[in-house]
Structures are given as C-alpha cells and as structure tokens.
Amino acid sequence: MTNDTNRPVALVTGATGGMGGEIVADLSRTHRVIATGRSVAALEDLALRTGCDTAAVDMTDAASLDGLGGSLDRLDVLVHAAAVSRARRVDTADAEDWALQLATNVTGPALLTRAVLPLLRRSAGTVVFIGSGAGTRPVPGSAVYTASKHALRGLADVLRIDEAPSRIRVVTIAPGQTDTAMLRDMIATAGGAYEPERYIRPASVAQAVRFVVDAPADVQLTDLAVRPRVEVSRL
Fold it and tell me: Where in this chain does the record put each Ketoreductase domain (predicted)?
C-alpha cells in the first residue's frame, strides 16, 4: 500500500464491477483509494485508470479479509460494493447457492468491517453498504439474493446503533435496476429483454456515495434509495 498521509483513505470492495469501478473513480479524486476484487488483471486496469491502490481479495475468504484489515494503518471510508446474485427460488436453490451468496453479500462485509473497525473508530469514519431494492421488498424468483440483501440491511442497522459512541456513520444505499453485468445476467436468466437506457447508470450510484461521504460532520444519512427516473418495476 502506498502511504499518502495528506489524503483520507477509502476502501472499496467489488471494485472491478460496474458500480464498484465508478465508485473508485469518483472517490479517487479526493481520497487514496484501495480497490479490492478477485481479478488481478481487472484491478491492474482500474489502477491505471484511476491511480488507486489494489488488493486481490475474495470476500468468501475470512483469512484474506483479516489480512487486508491488518495491512492498513488508516481508514476513513469503507464501501461494500461486492455482491453476487443468482436467480434462485427456494425450490431451486441448493446449499452452494445459499453459501456463496450469503458469504459474499453478508458474512464477508461483516468480517471485513470487524477487521477495520479500530481504524474507523479512530477516524469516526463512514461505512457504506451497497444494498438493493431487494433489501426492502420481495423479488420473485430470487429468494437467496433477496434474503441476503435483507440481512445486509439488518447488519447495517445494528452496526449503526452499536457504533454510535464511536461516531461511525453507517448508511445503506439501495439502488434500483442499474446497468451492470449482474443485472444483464439476471435478466438473461429470466429470459427478458435487456434495455440499458431504462436503468440507472453506475456513475449515478457513485454520485450517491459521494453525497453520503461528503455529508456535513453533524449528520449521517442512514438509508438512501436510488431509483430509475421512470420506474421499471417496484420489485
């Protein structure tokens, strides 16, 4: 990791995805950003484009998450953008589906947050969980992903209460349908037509993260829904 003590430090997971990459690009204007993901090649490309530091991390590997936390000496912003989605009903989801999605979408963020909590307490930092509309309402045919996003919101809500004495700000940003590879795969699996012009741009989600990070010091924005200008679906 490079050492630039003049800039606040942000850690962004899922940085090689559509949302994560845009969040890294935006925060890099004002922060030293550490971008994580599984693809080394994609991380190298992101570093060339944004000047970020990188760390290849699997959100399902607890030891890797602990190691990442131990490698840092400062942290002001933590953005959990890593996620995986497989469209599965209760009757079609197997143990692997549940294990992968819950580990990536819930357990991994919880363990990484635990690893860096001392740094966030020291800085009275900000934790951003990228949730989903699926975190507040059911999504037909997607029981596992919906359950994981409900759980992630619950995690954020309890963390906010427990860390209030440390003045850590905790927010869930819940985008609606966003033009990403994940959404493309979900719609393809369902046999639907993909219409990118109808969906939120990943850069718009990054702007929502910026809005939260730059909020005045006397407030925290706890829940922020980001919906398409013209609703595609209320699901």
Answer: 8-186
Kindly report the average pLDDT of the chain as a whole number: 91
> pLDDT tier at 133 (50, 70, 90 boundaries)?
confident
The pTM is what? 0.90
Residue 182 placed within a domain: yes
What's the CATH code of the domain at 178? 3.40.50.720
The verdict on residue 233 lying in a domain is: no
Catalytic residues: 145
**Domain range for 84:** 9-226
Q: Is residue 232 part of a domain?
A: no
Q: Burial letters for 174-199: b for 16+ Cβ neighbours within 10 Å, e otherwise?
A: bbbbbbbebbeebbeeeeeeeeeeeb
